Amino acid sequence: MIEVVYAGQEPPDEWDASIFLAGPTPRSATVPSWRPGALAELCRQSNVGVLVVFVPEAAGGTAYPDYDDQVAWEERWLDAADTILFWVPRDMATLPGLTTNVEFGRYESSGRVVLGAPEDAQHVRYLQHHARKHGAPVLPTLSDTVAAALASIEAGARRSGGERFVPLVAWRSPTFRTWVAAQQNAGNILLDGRLAWIQGQFIWAYHARMYVTAEDRVKANEFVLGRPDVVSIVAYRPGETPWRNEVVLVKEFRLPAGTSDGYVHELPGGGVLDGSPIDQAVHEMAEETGLRVAPERLRLSQVRQVVATLCAHRLHVFTVELTAEEIAYAHENPGPYGVHEDSERTFVEVRTYREILADELVDWSTLGVLNVVFSAPGP
Question: Name one GO biological process term (predicted).
Fold first, then answer.
């Protein structure tokens, strides 16, 4: 079922997917709009349960909203739409679409754009270049452009209320869903928001407006950052006291580092992109240190957020007690390790817990993990 929402109108309270029909709008009654043809193609091709289509034109026989209201309406639903279908049949004499250039520039890297233009469209090569640069489909016919837009949303996902303001490209991220579920379980209500940026489904930033039920107020001045959950492995050889535990760290050049040597010094680990956290922990341990440990040797310590004031993802901490041979191997084989073609180059460092506390090279999150692991009571 397709629900068409014209300029100034409010959409239904829930839907499975949404498409915004962006592109030149006729300014003269003698120039026909391309959007009825797009709606006809959507009706013919769509099999989405409830598909909302935003049309930034006045409904038949009605007046446009006030200019500022029109702009606000367009920006609100451009931000929310799962896919932005740009059809640009540009004719500089009759349908110049200059505003379209600005809108396309705002969303070209959003991961939500489909661009179509007929072969005789004027001055669209620059748009097409940047669409291809960002991996957006570029099509020559309206029918193909509609098909690409529908392919991008697939079956969609049912969302209601404030969830409608989360485009599918973010909604499909497990970290995003986990964050929303946690807020809902706490009794809070997502009122609306705006996806600021996203890189694939790997890392995203969302500006949310949330009703905080326990305080009966709206919180609307913060961004939430998210990425896939992360594993860290505390691989150590016990000493006479926890202070003398020998810990395997990895040293790696990372751009955010603010240490005296320009490197981060942290526990082996990485993002959980596929599979289970324990499988990822085994993989990261081998990839970053050369040490291969069987999954059954790993013990899950805790799962917590790392920086709860900013980031939504969680850290899964595993521990493994190394043999004398393994800690000797770590001492004698500093690397480099990592996936060099992905610009990952790691070096192994073996430090005692006391040395780690003293040298100020590791960050607070790493110190917090080690403190929990080494101060926790035994079984």
Answer: nucleoside phosphate metabolic process
